[in-house]
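SAMPLE LOG
Freezer: B-3
Tube label: C17
Construct: single chain, 298 aa
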Amino acid sequence: MAGRHIDLNLLRIFDVVMLERNMTRAAVRLNMTQPAVSNSIQRLREVLADDLFLKVAGGVVPTTRAEAIWPTVRASIQSLSQTLDPALFDPSMARVSFRIAMSDYVASELIRPLAGTLFRTAPGLSIVLHQNMLDNVVPDLTEGQIDLAAGVIPHQGDRIRSILLKPLTYVCAMRRGHRLARGKLTFDKFMEARHLEVSLSGRHSLIDRYLTDRGMHRDIALTINQFALAPDLLCETDLIAILPTETVLNAANSSELYATRPPIPVYEDSVSLLWHERNDDVPAHRWFREQLLRHFEQ
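STRUCTURE (predicted):
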Protein backbone atom coordinates (compact mmCIF):
# COMPACT_ATOMS: atom_id res chain seq x y z
CA MET A 1 0.00 0.00 0.00
CA ALA A 2 3.07 2.24 -0.28
CA GLY A 3 2.26 5.59 -1.86
CA ARG A 4 -1.50 5.01 -1.66
CA HIS A 5 -3.89 7.04 0.44
CA ILE A 6 -6.80 5.51 2.34
CA ASP A 7 -10.16 7.22 2.25
CA LEU A 8 -11.04 7.66 5.93
CA ASN A 9 -14.67 6.93 5.13
CA LEU A 10 -13.62 3.40 4.16
CA LEU A 11 -12.26 2.89 7.66
CA ARG A 12 -15.52 4.12 9.17
CA ILE A 13 -17.43 1.58 7.06
CA PHE A 14 -14.90 -1.11 8.00
CA ASP A 15 -15.49 -0.32 11.68
CA VAL A 16 -19.26 -0.74 11.38
CA VAL A 17 -18.94 -4.00 9.44
CA MET A 18 -16.63 -5.27 12.19
CA LEU A 19 -19.29 -4.38 14.74
CA GLU A 20 -22.21 -5.90 12.85
CA ARG A 21 -20.46 -8.85 11.12
CA ASN A 22 -23.14 -8.48 8.45
CA MET A 23 -23.09 -6.24 5.36
CA THR A 24 -26.85 -5.64 5.31
CA ARG A 25 -27.03 -4.61 8.97
CA ALA A 26 -23.97 -2.42 8.50
CA ALA A 27 -25.66 -0.72 5.54
CA VAL A 28 -28.75 0.03 7.65
CA ARG A 29 -26.65 1.55 10.41
CA LEU A 30 -24.63 3.62 7.94
CA ASN A 31 -27.73 4.69 6.01
CA MET A 32 -26.19 3.24 2.85
CA THR A 33 -27.20 0.55 0.39
CA GLN A 34 -25.74 -2.90 0.85
CA PRO A 35 -23.93 -2.83 -2.53
CA ALA A 36 -22.34 0.50 -1.58
CA VAL A 37 -21.00 -1.02 1.64
CA SER A 38 -19.70 -4.07 -0.23
CA ASN A 39 -18.01 -1.86 -2.83
CA SER A 40 -16.35 0.20 -0.11
CA ILE A 41 -15.00 -2.92 1.59
CA GLN A 42 -13.73 -4.14 -1.79
CA ARG A 43 -11.80 -0.87 -2.24
CA LEU A 44 -10.27 -1.27 1.20
CA ARG A 45 -9.34 -4.87 0.37
CA GLU A 46 -7.40 -3.65 -2.64
CA VAL A 47 -5.57 -1.00 -0.62
CA LEU A 48 -4.66 -3.37 2.22
CA ALA A 49 -4.11 -6.44 0.03
CA ASP A 50 -6.23 -8.60 2.30
CA ASP A 51 -9.71 -10.16 2.07
CA LEU A 52 -10.66 -8.53 5.42
CA PHE A 53 -13.97 -10.44 5.58
CA LEU A 54 -15.02 -13.93 4.58
CA LYS A 55 -18.63 -14.86 3.86
CA VAL A 56 -20.32 -17.30 6.24
CA ALA A 57 -23.92 -18.25 6.91
CA GLY A 58 -25.64 -15.20 8.34
CA GLY A 59 -22.94 -12.67 7.58
CA VAL A 60 -19.17 -12.34 7.48
CA VAL A 61 -16.21 -13.12 9.73
CA PRO A 62 -13.07 -10.97 9.83
CA THR A 63 -9.69 -12.23 8.73
CA THR A 64 -6.70 -12.24 11.05
CA ARG A 65 -5.51 -8.98 9.47
CA ALA A 66 -8.88 -7.32 10.03
CA GLU A 67 -8.89 -8.41 13.68
CA ALA A 68 -5.36 -7.05 14.09
CA ILE A 69 -6.02 -3.56 12.71
CA TRP A 70 -9.51 -3.05 14.13
CA PRO A 71 -8.59 -1.87 17.67
CA THR A 72 -6.36 0.86 16.24
CA VAL A 73 -8.91 1.85 13.59
CA ARG A 74 -11.72 2.01 16.15
CA ALA A 75 -9.71 4.01 18.68
CA SER A 76 -8.57 6.42 15.95
CA ILE A 77 -12.12 7.01 14.70
CA GLN A 78 -13.34 7.71 18.22
CA SER A 79 -10.43 10.04 18.93
CA LEU A 80 -10.90 11.92 15.63
CA SER A 81 -14.64 12.29 16.23
CA GLN A 82 -14.00 13.78 19.63
CA THR A 83 -11.39 16.18 18.28
CA LEU A 84 -13.58 17.42 15.43
CA ASP A 85 -16.77 17.54 17.47
CA PRO A 86 -15.94 18.06 21.15
CA ALA A 87 -19.47 19.20 22.01
CA LEU A 88 -21.45 17.30 24.59
CA PHE A 89 -22.77 13.96 23.39
CA ASP A 90 -26.42 14.19 22.28
CA PRO A 91 -27.97 10.75 22.88
CA SER A 92 -31.22 11.69 21.15
CA MET A 93 -29.40 12.13 17.82
CA ALA A 94 -26.55 9.64 18.05
CA ARG A 95 -26.25 6.22 16.46
CA VAL A 96 -23.85 4.32 18.68
CA SER A 97 -23.25 0.69 19.62
CA PHE A 98 -21.75 -0.92 22.70
CA ARG A 99 -20.56 -4.47 23.11
CA ILE A 100 -20.63 -5.49 26.76
CA ALA A 101 -19.46 -8.70 28.44
CA MET A 102 -21.59 -9.71 31.41
CA SER A 103 -23.33 -12.71 32.93
CA ASP A 104 -27.08 -13.18 32.78
CA TYR A 105 -27.23 -12.21 36.47
CA VAL A 106 -25.55 -8.85 35.84
CA ALA A 107 -27.72 -8.30 32.76
CA SER A 108 -30.85 -8.88 34.84
CA GLU A 109 -29.65 -6.35 37.42
CA LEU A 110 -28.31 -3.78 34.98
CA ILE A 111 -29.67 -3.99 31.43
CA ARG A 112 -33.20 -5.24 32.14
CA PRO A 113 -34.22 -2.36 34.45
CA LEU A 114 -32.38 0.25 32.35
CA ALA A 115 -33.29 -0.82 28.81
CA GLY A 116 -36.53 1.17 28.54
CA THR A 117 -34.94 4.41 29.73
CA LEU A 118 -31.82 3.93 27.61
CA PHE A 119 -33.70 3.36 24.35
CA ARG A 120 -36.13 6.18 24.99
CA THR A 121 -33.23 8.55 25.70
CA ALA A 122 -31.07 7.27 22.84
CA PRO A 123 -33.28 5.85 20.04
CA GLY A 124 -30.21 5.12 17.91
CA LEU A 125 -28.46 3.10 20.62
CA SER A 126 -27.69 -0.57 20.11
CA ILE A 127 -26.28 -2.96 22.71
CA VAL A 128 -24.73 -6.37 22.08
CA LEU A 129 -24.26 -8.55 25.17
CA HIS A 130 -21.43 -11.06 25.24
CA GLN A 131 -21.09 -13.90 27.73
CA ASN A 132 -18.68 -12.89 30.47
CA MET A 133 -15.73 -15.26 30.00
CA LEU A 134 -13.52 -14.13 32.88
CA ASP A 135 -10.20 -15.17 31.33
CA ASN A 136 -10.88 -13.15 28.18
CA VAL A 137 -12.22 -9.90 29.60
CA VAL A 138 -8.95 -7.96 29.81
CA PRO A 139 -7.60 -9.16 26.42
CA ASP A 140 -10.96 -8.43 24.76
CA LEU A 141 -11.08 -4.91 26.23
CA THR A 142 -7.47 -4.31 25.22
CA GLU A 143 -7.99 -5.57 21.67
CA GLY A 144 -11.28 -3.73 21.19
CA GLN A 145 -13.39 -6.88 20.94
CA ILE A 146 -15.72 -5.47 23.61
CA ASP A 147 -16.30 -1.93 24.86
CA LEU A 148 -17.23 -2.66 28.47
CA ALA A 149 -17.41 -5.53 30.92
CA ALA A 150 -19.44 -5.81 34.09
CA GLY A 151 -19.19 -8.48 36.74
CA VAL A 152 -17.04 -9.96 39.46
CA ILE A 153 -13.75 -9.67 37.59
CA PRO A 154 -10.68 -10.07 39.82
CA HIS A 155 -7.88 -9.73 37.27
CA GLN A 156 -7.44 -6.31 35.68
CA GLY A 157 -4.71 -4.98 33.37
CA ASP A 158 -2.65 -1.83 33.85
CA ARG A 159 -4.63 0.11 31.23
CA ILE A 160 -8.04 -1.12 32.32
CA ARG A 161 -10.24 1.29 34.23
CA SER A 162 -12.82 0.04 36.73
CA ILE A 163 -15.44 1.40 39.09
CA LEU A 164 -17.60 -0.32 41.68
CA LEU A 165 -21.25 -0.73 40.72
CA LYS A 166 -22.63 -2.67 43.68
CA PRO A 167 -21.61 -5.08 46.45
CA LEU A 168 -22.88 -8.65 46.32
CA THR A 169 -24.46 -10.67 49.10
CA TYR A 170 -25.14 -14.39 48.93
CA VAL A 171 -27.67 -16.84 50.34
CA CYS A 172 -27.94 -20.60 50.38
CA ALA A 173 -31.14 -21.45 48.52
CA MET A 174 -33.27 -24.55 48.08
CA ARG A 175 -36.91 -25.44 47.43
CA ARG A 176 -39.22 -24.50 50.29
CA GLY A 177 -40.16 -28.14 50.94
CA HIS A 178 -36.52 -29.27 51.20
CA ARG A 179 -35.66 -31.16 54.39
CA LEU A 180 -32.87 -28.65 55.08
CA ALA A 181 -35.36 -25.77 55.00
CA ARG A 182 -36.43 -26.79 58.51
CA GLY A 183 -34.23 -25.56 61.32
CA LYS A 184 -30.76 -24.08 61.19
CA LEU A 185 -28.57 -25.03 58.24
CA THR A 186 -25.37 -26.31 59.83
CA PHE A 187 -22.07 -26.88 58.08
CA ASP A 188 -22.47 -30.66 58.39
CA LYS A 189 -25.93 -30.56 56.79
CA PHE A 190 -24.57 -28.29 54.06
CA MET A 191 -21.82 -30.78 53.26
CA GLU A 192 -24.22 -33.74 53.25
CA ALA A 193 -26.46 -32.15 50.59
CA ARG A 194 -26.06 -32.36 46.83
CA HIS A 195 -25.22 -29.02 45.25
CA LEU A 196 -26.00 -26.93 42.19
CA GLU A 197 -23.13 -24.67 41.15
CA VAL A 198 -23.18 -21.69 38.78
CA SER A 199 -19.82 -21.22 37.09
CA LEU A 200 -19.24 -18.93 34.11
CA SER A 201 -15.81 -20.45 33.47
CA GLY A 202 -16.60 -24.08 34.25
CA ARG A 203 -14.10 -24.01 37.09
CA HIS A 204 -14.93 -24.45 40.75
CA SER A 205 -15.64 -21.43 42.89
CA LEU A 206 -13.85 -19.82 45.82
CA ILE A 207 -16.12 -21.87 48.06
CA ASP A 208 -14.62 -25.05 46.69
CA ARG A 209 -11.11 -23.68 47.05
CA TYR A 210 -11.92 -22.92 50.70
CA LEU A 211 -13.07 -26.52 51.20
CA THR A 212 -10.20 -28.04 49.22
CA ASP A 213 -7.66 -26.16 51.33
CA ARG A 214 -9.17 -27.94 54.32
CA GLY A 215 -9.23 -31.36 52.68
CA MET A 216 -12.98 -31.33 52.03
CA HIS A 217 -15.14 -31.54 48.93
CA ARG A 218 -18.85 -30.91 48.48
CA ASP A 219 -21.03 -33.07 46.25
CA ILE A 220 -21.70 -30.98 43.13
CA ALA A 221 -24.40 -32.73 41.15
CA LEU A 222 -24.92 -30.08 38.47
CA THR A 223 -22.84 -27.17 37.16
CA ILE A 224 -24.51 -24.56 34.95
CA ASN A 225 -23.34 -21.29 33.40
CA GLN A 226 -26.53 -19.22 33.79
CA PHE A 227 -27.87 -17.84 37.05
CA ALA A 228 -31.39 -17.53 35.63
CA LEU A 229 -31.72 -21.33 35.44
CA ALA A 230 -30.88 -21.88 39.09
CA PRO A 231 -34.24 -21.02 40.76
CA ASP A 232 -36.22 -23.38 38.50
CA LEU A 233 -33.71 -26.19 38.99
CA LEU A 234 -33.80 -25.77 42.75
CA CYS A 235 -37.61 -25.91 42.75
CA GLU A 236 -37.58 -29.14 40.76
CA THR A 237 -34.81 -31.00 42.63
CA ASP A 238 -33.36 -31.54 46.10
CA LEU A 239 -30.20 -29.61 45.19
CA ILE A 240 -29.07 -26.56 47.16
CA ALA A 241 -27.01 -23.64 45.86
CA ILE A 242 -25.20 -20.54 47.03
CA LEU A 243 -26.51 -17.69 44.87
CA PRO A 244 -26.56 -13.89 44.79
CA THR A 245 -29.42 -12.70 46.99
CA GLU A 246 -31.14 -10.90 44.10
CA THR A 247 -31.20 -14.07 41.99
CA VAL A 248 -33.50 -15.63 44.58
CA LEU A 249 -35.53 -12.54 45.51
CA ASN A 250 -36.22 -11.56 41.89
CA ALA A 251 -37.03 -15.06 40.62
CA ALA A 252 -40.55 -15.56 39.28
CA ASN A 253 -40.89 -18.51 41.66
CA SER A 254 -39.22 -16.86 44.66
CA SER A 255 -42.17 -17.81 46.88
CA GLU A 256 -41.30 -21.47 46.28
CA LEU A 257 -37.71 -20.99 47.43
CA TYR A 258 -36.18 -20.94 50.89
CA ALA A 259 -33.05 -18.88 51.48
CA THR A 260 -30.79 -18.78 54.50
CA ARG A 261 -27.34 -17.60 55.49
CA PRO A 262 -24.60 -19.88 54.11
CA PRO A 263 -22.95 -21.93 56.87
CA ILE A 264 -19.57 -21.34 55.24
CA PRO A 265 -17.50 -18.20 54.73
CA VAL A 266 -18.52 -16.57 51.45
CA TYR A 267 -15.97 -14.11 50.15
CA GLU A 268 -17.26 -10.60 49.73
CA ASP A 269 -17.65 -9.75 46.07
CA SER A 270 -18.72 -6.71 44.12
CA VAL A 271 -19.88 -6.06 40.59
CA SER A 272 -17.53 -3.67 38.80
CA LEU A 273 -17.68 -1.90 35.45
CA LEU A 274 -14.50 -2.14 33.34
CA TRP A 275 -13.31 -0.36 30.20
CA HIS A 276 -10.05 0.43 28.44
CA GLU A 277 -8.38 3.77 29.16
CA ARG A 278 -8.59 4.81 25.50
CA ASN A 279 -12.33 5.28 26.04
CA ASP A 280 -11.99 7.49 29.12
CA ASP A 281 -12.95 10.71 27.35
CA VAL A 282 -14.96 9.42 24.39
CA PRO A 283 -18.26 11.34 24.81
CA ALA A 284 -20.61 8.48 23.90
CA HIS A 285 -18.71 6.03 26.06
CA ARG A 286 -18.63 8.44 28.99
CA TRP A 287 -22.38 9.08 28.66
CA PHE A 288 -23.16 5.36 28.66
CA ARG A 289 -21.01 4.71 31.71
CA GLU A 290 -22.77 7.52 33.55
CA GLN A 291 -26.17 5.95 32.84
CA LEU A 292 -25.05 2.63 34.31
CA LEU A 293 -23.52 4.26 37.38
CA ARG A 294 -26.54 6.46 38.01
CA HIS A 295 -28.77 3.39 38.12
CA PHE A 296 -26.94 2.04 41.17
CA GLU A 297 -26.68 5.41 42.86
CA GLN A 298 -30.45 5.79 43.05
